[in-house]
């Protein structure tokens, strides 16, 4: 069962639905994880981000670079799973693709009750509620990891819950208007790194885990 397909049932099972929250995707039934007292307790919370040497991640509401190799890596990492995104990041994805990320459930964090709904998304009114719902859906879909995909406001608030970071370190100082918070990697240890060449900018794919 995919995360996107199990969203509606799992949202109800999580007990996280609030007035104004809405689910996209088709309804399914079944599964055992959602029946546990703490749905999603075993689901790891990971952060996925691409940042330059100055920890810049965005410019003008979009990514400051176009790196197809990193986009492929992001797709492979998150395929079939649950991602948590701030409203601005969600809107930048919809502007690019015309819809939320295909093949994944996006839990969007927004205070806006009137945010347009599409299949493949839930809306939650704050970060704890979004993580709670994402964990429940991920567990229901049999996933052991969920992905916080930005932007900067959501990264900063979710960081205390994060135990793994998938970082694409872009080898440049591109300049921008959105950056990760100072000291964001404190408490994490790098456990893997692989340099990738061939895109417009070289980058290193790094994995960090909470020490
Ligand atoms: N390089 C990367 O890996 C990467 C990844 C993701 C994004 N980005 C970039 O980052 C930029 C966007 O980041 P951002 O920090 O400006 O925006 P964001 O984190 O994507 O979204 C901010 C929005 O999230 C909602 N929000 C935040 N905290 C909330 C809370 N406590 N309760 C309820 N809602 C809350 C609010 O939505 P409402 O206003 O609707 O209430 C807020 O306006 C873009 O340039 C994007 O391209 C880069």
UniProtKB/TrEMBL annotation:
<comment type="similarity">
    <text>Belongs to the dihydrofolate reductase family.</text>
</comment>
<protein>
    <recommendedName>
        <fullName>dihydrofolate reductase</fullName>
        <ecNumber>1.5.1.3</ecNumber>
    </recommendedName>
</protein>
<dbReference type="InterPro" id="IPR017925">
    <property type="entry name" value="DHFR_CS"/>
</dbReference>
<keyword id="KW-0554">One-carbon metabolism</keyword>
<dbReference type="InterPro" id="IPR024072">
    <property type="entry name" value="DHFR-like_dom_sf"/>
</dbReference>
<comment type="pathway">
    <text>Cofactor biosynthesis; tetrahydrofolate biosynthesis; 5,6,7,8-tetrahydrofolate from 7,8-dihydrofolate: step 1/1.</text>
</comment>
<dbReference type="GO" id="GO:0004146">
    <property type="term" value="F:dihydrofolate reductase activity"/>
</dbReference>
<feature type="compositionally biased region" description="Low complexity">
    <location>
        <begin position="1"/>
        <end position="38"/>
    </location>
</feature>
<feature type="region of interest" description="Disordered">
    <location>
        <begin position="1"/>
        <end position="39"/>
    </location>
</feature>
<keyword id="KW-0521">NADP</keyword>
<keyword id="KW-0560">Oxidoreductase</keyword>
<feature type="domain" description="DHFR">
    <location>
        <begin position="44"/>
        <end position="210"/>
    </location>
</feature>
<dbReference type="InterPro" id="IPR012259">
    <property type="entry name" value="DHFR"/>
</dbReference>
<dbReference type="Pfam" id="PF00186">
    <property type="entry name" value="DHFR_1"/>
</dbReference>
<dbReference type="InterPro" id="IPR001796">
    <property type="entry name" value="DHFR_dom"/>
</dbReference>
């Amino acid at each position: 069962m995919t995360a996107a397909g199990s969203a509606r049932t799992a949202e109800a099972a999580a007990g996280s639905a609030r007035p104004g929250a809405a689910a996209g995707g088709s309804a399914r039934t079944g599964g055992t994880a959602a029946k546990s007292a703490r749905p999603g307790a075993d689901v790891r919370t990971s952060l996925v981000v691409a940042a330059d040497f100055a920890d810049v991640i965005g410019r003008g509401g979009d990514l400051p670079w176009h790196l197809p190799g990193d986009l492929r890596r992001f797709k492979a990492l998150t395929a079939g799973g649950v991602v948590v995104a701030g409203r601005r990041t969600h809107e930048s994805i919809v502007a690019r693709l015309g819809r939320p990320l295909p093949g994944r459930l996006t839990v969007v964090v927004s205070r806006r009750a009137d945010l347009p709904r599409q299949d493949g998304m839930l809306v939650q009114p704050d970060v704890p509620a979004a993580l709670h719902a994402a964990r429940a859906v991920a567990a229901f879909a049999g996933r052991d990891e969920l992905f916080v995909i930005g932007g900067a406001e959501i990264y900063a608030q979710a960081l205390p819950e994060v135990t793994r970071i998938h970082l694409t370190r872009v080898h440049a100082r591109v300049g921008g208007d959105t950056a990760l918070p100072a000291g964001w990697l404190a408490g994490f240890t790098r456990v893997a790194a692989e340099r990738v060449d061939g895109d417009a900018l070289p980058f290193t794919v790094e994995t960090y885990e909470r020490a």
